[in-house]
Amino acid sequence: MLEQDVGVLMVSFMLCFCRRNCKGNPSSLVGIGEQVWIGEIDENAFHNIDDPNSECRGMNTFVGLTNLGATCYVNTFLQVWFHNLELRRSLYQCHNSRAQEHNSESDYEPQSISDHLQYLFALLQNSNRKHINPSGLVKALGLDTGQQQDAQEFSKLFMSLLEDTLSKQKSPSLQNVIQQQFCGQFSYVTFCNQCGRSSALLSRFYELELNIQGHKNLNECVTEFLKVTFIPRIVKNVKNGQTAE
């Protein structure tokens, strides 16, 4: 008798597909909030889960930087500056009071440009991940991740900003590290073939604009930049008003 009753119950109460919970149907699961945590199950999601070990960098390999859209030029310069050992060592020596007061219970947030670069270089050197996100530095610089900027102009402005930031450090070696690593000098000499006199103009530079057209390597470009240029001298005869070279 009991089995028959159970059978009747199983036949009588069908699964409910209504939009509201039915008081008379114990099989109705509508309205108890199950869809909030169940939702629609995507079977493909279980096959798209990456192996966490695939995100770890291999032994003796370098850490990459995530491209945030159009920030490949930023990542290129960051990798170049990171591999400048003297610059990296100097940034590690910069005084950072926030880092010294930081504890593991809260996330560390760099403030100045040197702090961001110091933190980013530390991750590039010590992180176990294949790549890290430079969004903190990009945001601090106010760069638009969706717009490609001029790489040369970015390098020039960033070096100027970093040099100004490091000038506030107490150590003279830290104050002058940008000039020591990236600044050069050249002398523009004007020589007169007739009288033998010469004049020199000393200039500093952080970059050289070289002509690459028709050259095979950097040495040829620099050689052309340094080649002697003959400038004809215009001599004016004050007496008769005539000119001659």
Automatic annotation (TrEMBL):
Domain USP residues, every copy: 63-245
Catalytic activity entry: Thiol-dependent hydrolysis of ester, thioester, amide, peptide and isopeptide bonds formed by the C-terminal Gly of ubiquitin (a 76-residue protein attached to proteins as an intracellular targeting signal)
Keyword Methyltransferase set for record: no
GO cellular component: cytosol; nucleus
Enzyme Commission numbers on file: 3.4.19.12
Top-tier EC class: hydrolase
SUPFAM superfamilies listed in its UniProt record: Cysteine proteinases
An individual GO BP term: proteolysis
Pfam family, one: UCH
GO molecular function: cysteine-type deubiquitinase activity
Keyword entries, A-Z: Hydrolase, Protease, Thiol protease, Ubl conjugation pathway
Domain of life: Eukaryota
InterPro entries noted in UniProt: Papain-like_cys_pep_sf, Peptidase_C19, Peptidase_C19_UCH, USP
Family the UniProt entry places it in: Belongs to the peptidase C19 family.
PANTHER family: UBIQUITIN CARBOXYL-TERMINAL HYDROLASE, UBIQUITIN CARBOXYL-TERMINAL HYDROLASE 48
The protein's name: ubiquitinyl hydrolase 1
